[in-house]
Amino acid sequence: MSRILRLILLIGVLLQVSLLFAQGVILDSLCEGSIYVKTEEYEGVIFSANCPENWKDNKTYRWSPTEEDIVLAERLIKKYILNEKYITLANKLLIKKYNRKRVQGIDSVSQSQTPVVDLNLDKYYRQYMGFKDKRGRETLYVKCFWKEKECEFPYWKRNSITICDGGSYYWNITVDLKRKKCFAYSVHQ
């Protein structure tokens, strides 16, 4: 009887250890068909039409962006955000009032200590998702989050992150690649 108990205990321990290692593999792996992109200016995951994994709905309204799509989108996003008329009112006030007191793009005077988006574009991870509207028009939805917050989203390469609040550590934007326009730029409150 003690041999059987030992065998069951050994099997239980081996199963737990294998589950821990399996979680480590899942943690840093991509959703099927997705692409990881990294340049000096941006880094993120291009979700295929079947991803992210935590979306269980009908994905017929999705499309899979390419790396070339992301190059164009990033160029449009940067132009849009850096264009003076699109910088948020909060960032305009910070630029005017604290321009000399900024340290590496973070407002050192503000109580919230949140980053200034237009000065820190390279410090955000991205999640890129392609969507089609009812007429079949394709848009690219881009979710961005501060790289130092990665530990809060260990599965960000497989699952879409969901944030309510968080300030400028989180923002998103939609890009129409055909029309070469950005819209729905939103910095979290």
Can you put this structure into words, describing what you see?
The protein is of the alpha+beta class. The chain has 2 domains: about 30 residues; about 160 residues, no CATH class. It is about 30% helix and about 25% strand. The chain is built from 3 helices and 9 strands, in the order H-E-E-E-H-H-E-E-E-E-E-E. Strands 1, 2, 3, 6, 7, 8 and 9 form a 7-stranded mixed sheet that branches. Strands 4-5 form a two-stranded antiparallel ribbon. Strand 6 and strand 7 form a beta hairpin. The termini are far apart. About 15% of the residues have low confidence.
Task: Throw out a few tags for this protein.
single chain; 189 residues; alpha+beta; 2 domains; seven-stranded mixed beta sheet; two-stranded antiparallel sheet; 3 helices; 28% helix
